[in-house]
Amino acid sequence: MSEDSLVVNEIFFSLQGESSWSGLPCVFVRLTGCPLRCSYCDTAYAFREGRRMSRAAILEEVTRRARPFRQADLRVPGRDGEAVRLPLVEVTGGEPLAQPGVLPLLRVLCDAGYTVLLETSGALDIRPVDPRVHRIMDLKCPSSGEVDRNRWENLEVLRPTDELKFVIGTVEDYEWARDQILGRQLHRLCPILISWAHPLTPAQQDPVLKPVPAGQRRLSPRELAERVLADALPVRFQTQLHKWIWPPDQRGV
After folding, report:
1. What does DSSP assign to residue 197?
2. C-alpha closest to that of 174 among 121, 229, 136
3. How far, in Å, CA of 186 to CA of 194, rounded?
4. Of 130 and 248, the one with more pLDDT
5. CB 124 within 8 A of CB 98
6. Burial 29-42 (b: 16+ CB within 10 A, else e)
7. Residues in contact with 237: Cβ distance below 8 Å, sequence separation at least 6, in sequence order
8. What pTM does this model have?
9. What is the percentage of the chain residues whose pLDDT exceeds 90?
10. I need a surface site. Which of 68, 90, 119, 188 has the fewest CB within 10 A?
11. Which residues contact 24 (CB under 8 A, 6 or more apart)?
């Protein structure tokens, strides 16, 4: 596959719904394809739907959508106090690292002066990613059905500018995540996100997704938050902001 083009599912402008960047304006580039089939995946349509676009065309579309903010040169204090020029740009999927063309795309976006975020499953090598990119990496929990796909070597190269995310749907997920965070002292590497797994709507329940392992008990967001507090976990609790603003299965938000 050529590195000069990528298969793109959608490009849209919205609010960042997750991570420590939540609430900020962001242009999203969603790429097509993913080698995982997590039980809670809400973007299964990105496994197969998309069109091939050149890297130049992607940059042009991002620039078009970002233009009002860029023309006004709007900036806010970033996570570490540095000025961040709006909007953010996030490359997501699917699994964006499954396409070799994503690495030069990330470099081009950084060269254009954007603050660039990368959402990745944690199953593929994150080392080749441009060091200017903020990598938001999952560790897959048991209810995902993909816990065996975690690439543990990635933990060795995480930086303070990265973020590590656990998507929690069940009690078993929470206990597993808690043990990983405390046992490996993961909060010393980068910020840790605990994200409640929003239930899928009927339209999102794709038959290719892995089933939740039998016997696991689902957690409500309140139960999850109370467990985080009771265990004094050094994490940021989050829900998916966009799903509280728009219908949870609406695309392009």
Report:
1. -
2. 229
3. 12
4. 130
5. yes
6. bbbbbbebbbbbbb
7. 194, 196, 224, 225, 228
8. 0.96
9. 94
10. 188
11. 15, 16, 76, 84, 86, 87, 88
Q: Which pair of tokens denotes residue 216?
A: 């696991």
| Average pLDDT score over residue span 21-37 | 97
**Domains delineated in the chain:** 5-245 (3.20.20.70)
Q: Is the pLDDT of residue 80 over 80?
A: no
The residue to which tokens 């309140």 are assigned: 222
Residues 199, 41: Cα–Cα separation, whole Å: 10
Token digits of residue 4: 């000069």
Number of H helices, E strands in the chain: 5, 11
Spell out the residues 6+ positions from residue 164 whose beta carbon is closer than 8 angstroms to its own.
137, 138, 139, 155, 158, 186, 189, 190, 191, 192, 193
Assess whether pLDDT exceeds 60 at residue 1.
no
